[in-house]
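My convention is simple: the sequence line spells out the residues, with the fold written below as integer tokens. I include a record here:
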Amino acid sequence: MKYLFEEVKVHRVQANLDARNLASQRLCERIGMRKEAHFKQDYWSKGEWTDSIVYGMLAEDLESRGG
């Protein structure tokens, strides 16, 4: 994340996840991303409707964590 914000100069990083993917949720939280949305049955995956979750982080979020 530090590389993306400081070197590449992106403003925002976003992850869109299948809500069943708990490992990816834990990873997003561990690196400081915040859960911004949970959409109910909005994505067709593997033969069924599933929920999706959006995590996001702004450059200023990294700075406020001591970067």
Summary: Strands lie at 12-18, 34-45, 48-58. The helical segments are 2-8, 22-30, 59-64. The chain has one domain: 2-64.
